[in-house]
Amino acid sequence: MKDRFTIGEIAKLHNISVKTLRYYDEIELFKPIEVDQHNNYRYYSTAQFEHLNTINYLRNLGVPLKEIKKQFDEPDLDYFLNILKKQQQVTAERIRDLQNINERVINRINELEWAKSNHQYGIPFIKDINERQIIQLNKKISSHPELELSIRKLENIARLKSSIFIGSVGVTLPIEQIKNNNFKEYNSIFLLVEEENIAPDFKTTLPSGQYACIYCNEERIHSSQYYDKLLEFIENNHLKINGDAIERTIIDHYMTHKPEEYFSEIQIPITRPSS
How far apart are CA 124 and CA 214, in angstroms? Predict the structure, then answer.
C-alpha cells in the first residue's frame, strides 16, 4: 500500500491548500516526513494524517496557530483542555453577537415592512411608547455636515461594534423653536441603542409615556405642515407638551429612489389633562 504522498496529494486528501502546507512546514508545525534532496519534493506519510487532522480540527474551531504549535511542541492534556475551554468562551461570545445581529435585523425588517405598508401620513394620533435607551449629544446642529460629524462623534464615544443604521438616528427640537417655524436647528442628536455592551455612562433614556405623533412622507422635515397639524391636535385635545419634539427618518433616498416611499415620524411627549 502506498505510504508516500506528495504535497499536492496531501492537499487534496485533506482539503487544504498547498500554500498552507508549505507555511506549516516553514513554521515547523507540520513538516514532511521526507524531502527529496535532488528536487526538494516534500513527501508525507499516513502516520502524519492524525497530526494534520488535529491541526485542521483546532483551526476550524478558530484556535490560533501559535497555540496549536505549542500543544504539538509540548503535548499536555491540561493545556489542550484549556485551549478548548478558551475557544468555547470565544464561540459563546460569537453566538451572542450573532443573536444580537439577528435581533437587530429582525427589528429593521419589521419596522421597514410596517413603514412600507403605512400610508396614514399627516394624521395625528397618540401612542404609548416604552422607555428607549439612547446615547445623546446635546449641541446645536444647523447643517447637514454638522449632523454627520455629530453622528460620527456619538459612534466613537459609544464605541459601537455595529455600524449606525438608518432609523437609529434621531434629533430633538425645542417646541418654542417649532412655533417660530425654525426647523433647521436641532438642539440634540441621539442614537437608539441596540447593543448591550455600551458603558452605562454613555446611556440615557427617552422616557416612557404618551406621545402625540404624526407620520410624514418626507425624508427630512423641512416645512411646517406636519407640525402645524400636530400642534393643532395637541391644542384641540387639551394636551400638555412635556418636552422637546423628536424626529426620526425611517426611509430615505439611500433605501429608495421613490420620494413617495420616504417615511419620517414626529413625536412630541404629552400628558393628558387631569379629570
Answer: 5
- Residue 111: pLDDT band by 50, 70, 90 thresholds? confident
CATH class (in words) of the domain with range 5-75: mainly alpha
Burial 7-44 (b: 16+ CB within 10 A, else e): eeebbeebebeeeebeebeeeebbbbeeeeeeeeebbb
Taking CA atoms, 171 is separated from 81, 132, 148, 229, in Å, by 51, 14, 12, 20
Cβ contacts of 65 within 8 Å, gap of 6 or more: 27, 29, 59
Cβ contacts of residue 239 below 8 Å, gap of 6+? 126, 212, 270, 271, 272, 273
CA–CA gap between residue 158 and residue 200 (Å, rounded): 10
Domain ranges of the chain: 5-75, 118-271
Q: Which residue has the cell 496529494?
A: 9
Contact at 8 Å (CB) between 270 and 240?
A: yes
pLDDT score, position 248:
92
Q: What is the mean pLDDT of the chain?
A: 88
Quick: pLDDT tens for 79-106: 999 999 999 999 999 998 888 888 888 9
118-271: CATH class: alpha beta
CA separation for the pair 21, 13 (Å, rounded)? 12
Q: Are 211 and 268 in contact (CB under 8 A)?
A: yes
Using alpha carbons only, what angle is made at residue 94 by residues 108 and 21, rounded to the nearest 5 degrees?
125
pLDDT at 21 (0 to 100): 96
